[in-house]
Design brief:
heterodimer; A: mainly alpha; 14 helices; B: alpha/beta; four-stranded antiparallel beta sheet; disordered C terminus
Chain lengths: 287, 353
């Protein structure tokens, strides 16, 4: 794992990608801090962090698009499998290298409250809570984009799909608001969600039957629930999606409320996507 | 060292390996031979744990590759067909990375990397980016990484493909040197290479093992005779009766001759005797002019062709694969008995064209 980690980190630092990632985030954050905190005189870091969180949309796909796809195009993945390494070590090594690239701008951002304290009273706890939120969001998004990179050989497709996925996550809170709250709408949306889940199962197992079984089970369960306890579906989709929305959790933490649930949720998403990335690579060996 | 038992691999409905079994003993150089698409790379990928098998078992140094992958993989150094290099690293950085990934002890990494670089003669390019290295040097970096971690078996998948003749010779020498220290398995579709380097040959055809024996045994078992092509300007019957007393001629076959008055024969002659001189004097005594006399030695080539050519098969296609030459090379394609020794030594060179 250390070997993969060191190699990947060096590779980011030897290529432009790592520098672009760090530079872009710092520039973006610096401009936001200058506008909100220095010119407009706000004491809170919240806005700068929130906008930097949105900037992840562009930079995270750039840094993760090469992580697994490139190994496939270079045919180095086969060789990695022949080394005495577990697939999980390969994935975690690569993830940690990317996370370390994220730690560099985050580390610099952590100096900002100290610098700004020269101009007024800073609320350190909420400022660092916001930076932590940004870091955790970054880890979760890197993990999601790494998974997408594990699905495709092409770096461009990985980048575009990752961008699409992150854009979807960003506007998810707005999309949820558009869905009616009545039971039938919730039911239909959940059925649609079941099909998406089944498609992921199909892709991960490379077995269409597994996907079909998953789809049938989920839909039958939903139909049964809907038939027997319709009231349960009132606003259910809303609740589920708001709970799942990464950016909602990020906004909560960023507002200065240290919610342990949100921290755990963001970390869980990270671990979950790393786990399915491992499964995705394993599937490829078995197919 | 390596035991492969009833290995089957399916890609969808396509059967790539069909219930193959073989074993690899320590300290020999093995050649895995087969036409393109026969299943050589699939076999190697499964042995090295890169690919899972549909059924069957592979044990390396007593460890099952599927049950105890980490222990089994420590016994193996693998160079895939395309050298798995990170072009943004220098050979020394890359070899350090592989040594770490192979869990070589920290103190031993520097020494091992230096040793393999010395053996593969990489010292002079050790600080140049891999992307700027020639194909031959890249191949050496690939072989060097396979040797790190001191594995017992080194598996090389078509290590000489795409190299120039000089590089091919250097890489073959390197394989020979490796063979003195370790067990080496290497795949190839170039017969000359296998004849030159290997002690034992496993021939795969359409996912099945069609031969697994030492080179000498293979030559001996398939054909105990050489073939002698003669054309003599005389009556067929008198020629055959003149040949009757000559020792070493096992049987004869009359070939239709285009030339009037010329009798053309294909003789099977015992490998241990050469009846050419006797034939010459016998014909000279009778004043029968010899138009053609050509001895065709049975080689690995004919063994290979007889094993991998079956009814309805695209013979010409396989033949040209074997020679590593282009289809438009009419001389070779028309020669259905394979090429002679001289032609074989040219094979490596024609591969690069």
């Amino acid at each position: 794992m250390i070997a993969v980690f060191t190699r990947e980190f060096k590779s980011y630092m030897n290529n432009m990608t790592g520098h672009i990632f760090i530079g872009f985030l710092l520039l973006f954050f610096g401009v936001c801090v200058a506008i909100y905190n220095l010119f407009l005189g706000m004491a809170s870091f919240r806005f700068a962090i929130e906008i930097t969180g949105i900037a992840f949309l562009v930079v995270v796909p750039i840094i993760t698009m090469r992580s697994l796809g490139r190994d496939r195009t270079n045919l180095t993945d086969t060789h990695l499998f022949s080394l005495p390494l577990k697939v999980s070590e390969i994935i975690i090594g690569k993830f940690l290298a990317t996370a370390l690239v994220l730690v560099i701008p985050i580390g610099v951002m952590m100096l900002y409250p100290l610098i700004l304290s020269a101009y007024g009273n800073m609320h350190y706890a909420s400022s660092y809570c916001a930076i932590l939120a940004l870091f955790l969001l970054g880890l979760a998004l890197i993990s999601i984009c790494m998974f997408i990179s594990s699905l495709t050989e092409s770096q461009v497709i990985a980048a575009v799909l990752s961008f699409g996925a992150l854009l979807f996550l960003l506007i998810l809170p707005l999309l949820i608001a558009l869905v009616p709250k009545d039971a039938l709408a919730s039911f239909l949306c959940l059925v649609a969600l079941s099909f998406i889940l089944a498609a992921i199962v199909w892709k991960l197992t490379s077995n269409i039957n597994a996907g079909m079984i998953a789809a049938v089970l989920l839909v039958v369960a939903l139909c049964a629930l809907y038939y027997f306890k319709k009231s349960l579906f009132e606003g259910l989709f809303h609740k589920i999606m708001t709970g799942l929305s990464l950016y909602d959790r990020f906004y909560d933490l960023n507002s200065g409320v240290f919610d342990l649930g949100s921290v755990v949720y963001l970390l869980s998403v990270t671990v979950f996507f790393l786990f399915i990335s491992v499964q995705s690579l394993e599937t490829r060996r078995w197919s | 060292m390596i035991e492969v038992r009833n290995l089957t691999k399916k890609y969808g409905d396509n059967l790539a390996l069909d219930n193959i079994s073989f074993s690899i003993d320590s300290g020999k150089v093995y050649g895995l031979l087969g036409p393109n698409g026969a299943g050589k790379t699939t076999t190697m990928n499964i042995i090295t744990g890169c690919l899972a098998a549909t059924s069957g078992t592979v044990t390396v140094g007593g460890h099952d590759i599927f049950e105890e992958p980490l222990e089994a993989k420590r016994h193996i150094g693998y160079l895939p067909e395309v050298p798995p290099l990170y072009t943004d690293m220098t050979p020394s950085e890359y070899l350090n990375f592989i040594a770490m990934a192979k869990r070589v002890e920290y103190e031993a990494i520097y020494r091992q990397v230096r040793e393999v670089m010395e053996l593969t003669q990489l010292e002079e390019v050790s600080d140049r980016l891999i992307r700027n290295l020639s194909k031959g040097y890249r191949q050496r970096v690939g072989i060097a990484q396979a040797m790190l971690g001191n594995p017992d078996v080194i598996i090389l998948d078509e290590p000489t493909v795409g190299l120039d003749p000089k590089q091919i010779i250097e890489i073959r020498d390197l394989i020979r040197t490796l063979g003195e220290m370790k067990t080496v398995i290497f795949s190839s579709h170039i017969l000359a290479e296998v004849t030159e380097v290997c002690e034992r040959v496993i021939i795969i055809h359409r996912g099945k093992i069609v031969a697994d024996d030492s080179l000498e045994n293979l030559n001996r078992s398939i054909e105990s005779t050489n073939r002698l092509h003669i054309a003599i300007k005389a009556d067929e019957r008198t020629v055959i009766s003149a040949l009757a007393g000559i020792p070493g001629i096992v049987e004869h076959e009359v070939i239709r001759s285009g030339e009037p008055g010329v009798c053309e024969l294909m003789l099977s002659v015992d490998k241990n005797t050469d009846p050419r001189e006797a034939i010459f004097f016998a014909m000279a005594d009778r004043r029968f002019p010899i138009i053609t006399m050509e001895l065709k030695k049975s080689s690995l080539e004919s063994v290979f062709l007889s094993l991998t050519t079956d009814a309805g098969d695209d013979t010409a296609g396989h033949g040209s694969d074997v020679n590593g030459e282009d289809d438009d090379d009419n001389d070779n394609d028309n020669d259905d008995n394979g090429v002679d020794d001289d032609d074989e030594s040219d094979v490596g060179e024609s591969e690069d064209e």
